[in-house]
Amino acid sequence: MDGLEAMGEAFYQQLAERLNQGPVAVAIVVDGQGSVPREVGAKMLIGADGPPIDTIGGGAGEAKVIAAAQTVLATGQPQMVKIDLSGVAQRSIEGICGGWMRVWVERWQPEYRGLLRQLLDRLNHQPTYLVVPLGPNAPYLLDHPPGPQVYQASYVERLQPSPLLLIVGAGHVGLALASTAEGLGFTVVVQDDRPDFANGDRFPTATEIWTESVGERLPLLPTVPDLYIALVTRGLAYDVAALEAILTAQRPYRYLGMIGSRKRVKRVMEALIAQGYGVPPSPFYAPIGLPINAFTPEEIAVSICAQLIQVRRSPTNVPSADVPP
């Protein structure tokens, strides 16, 4: 069975770290039907001690998987756990969502760290596939894409590199946006010409911090499958300069959004047209974010990240620029 396209880089990084401490159980949703709390490909880590990492849906169903994971950790024998969410009377159920899920639970040993290093190395450059054998005593496989000689009973997960969010502007909104987006699995790069704002103390988990212009650094950014760009600058002139650089670089992007009032957006578009660039092609979101009446920097970051999720989960959702006439 094939899994939905997943962005599991952060999960497998956490798994590699946990394996430094000893064996850990991995639970992955490999099949499901009807209304269920998590999608095929959802995963969680369960160790002998401490709370689990991530979730496959919560509630009694997840508790059943955690209990099975403790047995798997003790015996080394993998299990397939079925979670019944149908709500049918006189049946042992773990919820009433309306469907069911099958969850494969297997013990990962520290010896698997070599496989994880290969997987994470591939994910630095390209999508890859992890072939999970749904049976004992069979090794995991990496492939791109899976060849014909895969296991008859297996789960194939297509893994994408983490999406990259370029935040142009390191002010209050940029700071809140970086923190919120990182929690959603985005790799973050920050640009601002003010070293007092764009620095590692304020953005400790950013992959890169640029104090040079977008025009200088964007062409040097490695090619990534999913590039998202959020302009949250301190003024119109910075918006124009950043958009000129983005249009000149002609780098494909999944998302481009710009903060500001409709009046500011209109003036930026007029400046771009006057200089011969034209309006940025779709997908271009201006004003940025979903309209939830956000006011504080933290609320604005939530509205932007909600829009990022909307784009990330809806590949065909490509609206035109929201620019007033």
CATH architecture annotation of the largest domain? 3-Layer(aba) Sandwich
Structural class: alpha/beta
CATH topology heading of the largest domain: Rossmann fold
Overall outline: elongated
What does this structure look like?
There is one protein chain. The protein contains 8 helices and 14 strands. The longest helix is centred in the first third of the chain and has 17 residues, at 59-75. Helix 4 links the parallel strand 9 (164-168) and strand 10. It is elongated, with a radius of gyration of 23 Å. Residues 1-5 and 317-325 have low confidence and may be disordered. The strands form 3 sheets. It has a 6-stranded parallel β-sheet, with helices on one face. It has a 5-stranded antiparallel β-sheet with strand order 3-2-1-5-4, sandwiched between helices. With 325 residues, it is of the alpha/beta class. It has helices spanning 9-19, 59-75, 113-123, 172-183, 214-217, 236-249, 262-274, 297-313, and strands spanning 24-33, 43-46, 53-54, 79-84, 100-108, 128-133, 141-143, 154-159, 164-168, 187-191, 208-210, 227-231, 255-258, 284-285. The chain starts with 8 loop residues before the first helix and ends in a 12-residue tail after the last helix.
SSE blueprint and pairings:
Layout: H1 9-19, E1 24-33, E2 43-46, E3 53-54, H2 59-75, E4 79-84, E5 100-108, H3 113-123, E6 128-133, E7 141-143, E8 154-159, E9 164-168, H4 172-183, E10 187-191, E11 208-210, H5 214-217, E12 227-231, H6 236-249, E13 255-258, H7 262-274, E14 284-285, H8 297-313
Parallel strand pairs: 9-10, 9-12, 10-11, 12-13, 13-14
Antiparallel strand pairs: 1-2, 1-5, 2-3, 4-5, 6-7, 6-8
